[in-house]
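During the no-cost extension, the postdoctoral fellow (Dr. R.K.) reprocessed legacy sequence entries with the updated structure-token encoder. One reprocessed record is reproduced below for audit purposes.
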Amino acid sequence: MLSYVLRRIVQSFIVLLIVMLVTFTLPYFQKSGILTPGYAVLGTHATPHNLAVWAQNNGMNHPYWERFWTYVTQVFFHHNLGHSYKQNMSVWQIISLYVPRTVWLALSALIFTLIIALPLGIFQASRRNTVFDYTATGTAFVLYAIPSFLLAMLALDAFSFHTIHLPASPPSGVSAWAIFTDPVGFILPVGCLTLLSVAGVSRFMRGTILETLVQDYIRTAKAKGCSNRRTLFRHAFRNALGPIITILGLSVPGLFGGALIIESVFNYGGLGLQTVFAATNSDVPIVLGITLLVAIFTLVGNLLADLALGLVNPRIRIEGTTR
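Re-encoded structure tokens follow.
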């Protein structure tokens, strides 16, 4: 098990280095290259001499690989994601205020997705080709295809402006615990983000259970007299956990991507709203810092999914030694 864990950690570290290389290189493709922030800082004083002085003071005149090594060491050892020259603040100082709010939003949606999607997929598989199965399948297709911003706007129109009058946006401020102190304000954003995830996970769960139910060991269990309920939950569900854990790990970037749109529609002060603000103001360091942070969350989610998959299915841990 230890070798399996170390192998997954090394693989995640290599992927993270590749992502860091990409985020570090992207500013070179700006109109004025890495000197673009200098023009924003100096303004009308952006003469060649002043730009050269600014570049020297900020280490912009160093070779590419030396700057990349400095960037890597700053990220790993000092949690320094760069500097926003437009706001004259550290990138981490800016986004650290919003990280907990987005994490709680995505985590809440993930928990509700598990509570709803897994039983729904199992029940659909056990009631295959019934009216309920067809209805749930059609609803899942609609939710899977609908854009997140359209779903959020429809939810606002239906449950905030006309009938139930739920809060149109969560409470203002940047408190990470606002989702617990005023949960009513989070019903719409968490609900929309959950619905977007439930559609895909429930369909995947249904398909995995149906694929498992036709295996030989399921027919053997039924031949030995196991009830349908015992066969479904003790044998089929247990062996379907592997693919489900994998798809949940892969859903982490989807949750953060959906949160970006959901936060913008509901005016929720999280990473999504900050990303939109930074993008519209051409604050490249903020955008790249958030991109790197979301990539880290994605790698951590996939790593945890791999470790959980190794615990559920021990055969995966020895895949390097099997033939």
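DSSP finds 14 helices and two strands in the chain. Residues 2-95 form one domain. The remaining legacy entries will be reprocessed before the final report is submitted.
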